[in-house]
């Protein structure tokens, strides 16, 4: 799969992370200005993980765009071939 990620040279996130942890994904989303929680929510880390899982990870798994693989005790998020195909459709 990693060899296919080179197909997206204008996507620095994909080039930087062929697979990504939830923690790094939360950091990248927040640095891009994407809020996982609304202003009324508690800003706890557990709340951010739950929001990430509910809003993004679960739907993308259902659509077969990503899969979770165990890396020790923590899951790593990886693109599936279907996810790569969707990104190629959406690329600039």
Summarize it.
The protein contains five helices and three strands; from the N terminus they run ααβααββα. It is of the alpha+beta class and 92 residues long.
Q: How does the SSE layout of this entry go?
A:
Blueprint: H1 2-5, H2 12-16, E1 19-21, H3 22-31, H4 45-62, E2 66-71, E3 74-79, H5 81-90
Antiparallel strand pairs: 1-3, 2-3
Biggest sheet: strands side by side, in what order?
A: 1-3-2
* N-to-C CA distance: 21 Å
Shape: globular
CATH homology-level superfamily = Winged helix-like DNA-binding domain superfamily/Winged helix DNA-binding domain
- Average pLDDT metric: 79
Please indicate the count of domains.
1
Please bin the fraction of helical residues: 40-55%
Stretches where pLDDT falls below 50 for ≥5 residues?
Answer: 1-8
Q: What's the CATH first level? A: Mainly Alpha
**What is the CATH-assigned architecture?**
Orthogonal Bundle
Radius of gyration: 14 Å
Output the number of helix runs. Answer: 5
Largest sheet: 3 strands, antiparallel
Main structural class: alpha+beta
What fraction of the residues are assigned to beta strands by DSSP? 15-25%
Enter the CATH topology name: Arc Repressor Mutant, subunit A
């Amino acid at each position: 799969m990693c060899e296919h990620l080179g197909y997206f040279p204008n996507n620095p996130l994909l080039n930087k992370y062929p697979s990504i942890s939830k923690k790094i994904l939360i950091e990248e989303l927040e640095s891009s200005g994407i809020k996982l929680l609304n202003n009324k929510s508690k800003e706890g880390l557990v709340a951010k993980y739950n929001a990430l899982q509910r809003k993004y990870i679960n739907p993308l798994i259902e659509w077969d765009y990503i899969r979770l693989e165990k890396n020790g005790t923590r899951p790593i998020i990886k693109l599936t071939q279907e996810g790569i195909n969707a990104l190629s459709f959406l690329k600039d």
